[in-house]
Amino acid sequence: MCNRSGLRISLVSVFLGLCLPALPLQAQEKPLPELSSFISEFRKTLHSDDKLLSQYTYTEKETSNTLDSNGKVKKTEVNEFQIFNAEEDWKSYRRQIVKNGVPVSEKELEKKDREEKERVEKETNKRGKQSEAERQKNKAKADQEEQEILDDVFALYDLHLIRRDILNGIPTILVTFKPKANFKARTKEGRILQHIGGSAWIAEDDHELARLEAQIIDPISVGAGVLAKVNKGSTVVFERRKINGEIWLPVKEEATVNAKILMLKGFNLHEITEFSEYKKFGADVQLIFGEVSDKPRE
């Protein structure tokens, strides 16, 4: 549960009274699973979505609403991107195809594609001097850091299994999480998460995260509040679904944030990010800058 390049599971919001369909009476009467074993199985499936997304191309649509003090929309901006991911972040390409609601021209796209291709070629030559041992060392370090974050996550929260719910046709277990008092987190992500509580819906059959909701229960300050401060009550919702019946990937993120930066006037934002048009890299997909071809690789 960290930032965008880390564990996307940090993007969650508190349960807001959604009217989720009830399970049949027989299913409701079935005892809930034992907490520790259920959470242990859940942890095995929990990895950064960035790693999973590195196997796919997809479209990302961002809708950003600036709100007034009463929560009414003052300004809306829509941007859309084609995402060409790679196992290593520096190879990934976030190709903007809609800017502030207006499609980007073919001429501008071609220009950006050339610039991106040149950037990757230059970086590839630079990194070509790095040995395989160094690359493996860096990968091992990143994996270790992720495990340390997960250690903090599963240690800092009080977890409770609440009930069964059907979510998008999938049987799930609703789990609430609340930070323990006086817990000392080892990672910076853990120290941030100590300000967050909420709920998670976990698929009962394969223990995958289907939905997370969280709310900031006390303010998060950066630089003692001088650099930034995210206020209590800010919320985030994160939804995942099983794509093509084989893998769970994000489909939507929604955040309402009240914050202040550099001691300046605060701002209210409501942002929605939608993920769609997933295509998996492999024999049936060939990546060319600006294109995803369905033709097999030669």
Q: If you had to describe this structure to a student in words, what would you say it looks like?
A:
- This protein is an alpha+beta fold.
- It has one domain.
- It is built from six helices and 15 strands.
- It has helices spanning 25-29, 35-45, 49-53, 106-127, 132-156, 188-193, and strands spanning 56-67, 73-84, 93-99, 102-103, 157-167, 170-179, 196-203, 209-216, 220-222, 228-230, 235-243, 247-261, 267-280, 286-288, 291-293.
- Strands 1, 2, 3, 4, 5, 6, 7, 8, 9, 10, 11, 12 and 13 form a 13-stranded antiparallel β-sheet that branches.
- A hairpin with a 5-residue loop joins strand 1 and strand 2 (73-84).
- The protein is globular and about 60 Å long.
Shape: globular
The helicity comes to 10-25%
- Structural domain tally: 1
Radius of gyration: 21 Å
End-to-end distance: 39 Å
Binned strand content: 35-45%
Beta strand count:
15
The helix tally amounts to 6
SSE series: HHHEEEEHHEEHEEEEEEEEE
Structural category: alpha+beta
- Unreliable parts: 1-23, 283-287, 292-298
Characterize the largest beta sheet: strand count, sense, and whether it forms a barrel. Answer: 13 strands, antiparallel
Summed over residues and divided by their number, the pLDDT gives a mean of: 81
Kindly summarize this structure in a few lines:
This protein is of the alpha+beta class and 298 residues long. The chain has 6 helices and 15 strands.
